[in-house]
Amino acid sequence: MATNFVDRVVLHVRGGHGGHGVASVHREKFKPLGGPDGGNGGKGGSVILQVDPQSTTLLEYHHSPLRSAPNGRPGAGDERNGADGADLVLPVPEGTVVKDSRGEILADLVGAGRTFVAAAGGRGGLGNKALASPRRKAPGFALLGEPGDESDITLELKTLADVALIGYPSAGKSSLVSVMSAAKPKIADYPFTTLVPNLGVVTAGSMRYTIADVPGLIPGASQGKGLGLEFLRHVERCSVLVHVVDCATLEPGRDPMSDLDVIEQELAEYVADESLGGKPLAERTRIVVLNKADVPDALELAEMVKPDLEARGLEVHIVSAVAHTGLKDLSFSLARHVQHAREEIEAAIAPQRIVVRPKAVDDSGFSIRKERQGDEDVFRIVGERPTRWVRQTDFTNDEAVGYLADRLNRLGVEDELFKAGAVPGSTVLIGPADNAVVFDWEPTLTTGAELLGPRGTDLRLDDGGRATRAEKREEFHRRKDAQREAREELDAERKAGLWTDRDPVEIDGDD
What we know:
The protein is an alpha/beta fold and 511 residues long. The chain has helices spanning 59-63, 128-131, 173-180, 228-232, 256-269, 274-277, 296-311, 327-348, 384-392, 398-411, 413-420, 469-495; strands at 8-14, 47-51, 66-68, 88-92, 96-99, 105-109, 115-119, 150-157, 163-166, 198-204, 207-213, 240-246, 285-291, 315-318, 367-373, 376-382, 427-430, 437-440. The strands form 4 sheets. The chain has a 6-stranded mixed beta sheet with strand order 10-11-9-12-13-14, with helices on both faces. The chain has a 5-stranded mixed beta sheet with strand order 3-1-8-5-6. The N and C termini lie far apart (144 Å). Mg(2+) binds at residues 174, 194. GTP binds at residues 167-174, 192-196, 213-216, 291-294, 320-322.
């Protein structure tokens, strides 16, 4: 049976990739090498879930479960940064619970406008203008943009209501909601008329609370039989559970006591999220409503079983949704229980404390694990910064690879690899286990760029400015002093007899 109500979907979300930085050199007339001017890449857009009061179902994501945010734009020359990717905002109903692929709760979206970043966009890469420094005046490389987060999340809609009406199909739950509030659910005389939870607002004196009509439960609902498992999650947030019992049913083998026992058993077997209701369903406040008292036989049966139910410690109300009898007492009784439940919740909420955990002095920001793969030892570097740096590196550019080596060396990776037992040629992995970058480690990485000077420099851009007048005067006096010292040294050597006239050379001639 087709329905426009969907309360559980699996959504694949992907944040936008960051734009790449660009390596560019400024050029203009009479100035062919004006320095680096490459712009940064833009940040990728994020996928954000936001509570929308106008949204009531997850149907849209059932039909389109793949959602991706736009990528950031790459940078350009002349110091032009790339545009950021726009965030993709997905409206969800209030009460949506976000879970990861392992079933752990990531967020409980309650409150209009509440947001949750389901997939963060990647950072944009830096251009060579941003990478320039006094020591690296002309970087010939830029950083790549980081990929956005990507994951599968489960969205579950769990109705926000104070009171839940539960019971067998056709017990009169929708009729009670329609007469106690302004809600207009579909009402008919056949089972499973209600296919979606119906919410209504009830006013009892100065007290206002919400009431939900949960689709009919049957034996085995907690194991998925019928529609029960799909909608039992909608009672997890409710503080008060109201058993609506049909006292006028003509089905053989059914009576108010057995109907109540069956539903109680289903509540006890259903495992709810502890963080969404506080107590197990079987431990919450429960009230029994014996409905259809406008039928004479039903009224007689209700009055007969009421003492037995009260002997169990249950509060019992005999009502008729058709004749509107007993509804006022029921509404005020529910208001008292809701008020008491709200006070308990407020008392249990501890004041929020801000915990500051400073970074340890000896925290290097990474760790090295020695693993055995096949017949060799490999060393895996685990850490947020090394992983991010690897993602930003263009491995087709030798200078960029050298820059990565410098960053890792400054972080202390080489020293820790030596301590872990790595030797030149050892296999080193950086990144997640399913997408790691593999290196044959060498303690010192040298590239062709170093032959032209320190990495990131260009001798053609060195400052060859003219000397100042003071520097010229100092150089002149330095030369004069050197000449005077040389003359004095030669004169001293001459006086000491080290310098004499050469004896004449006799040349024997032939007689």
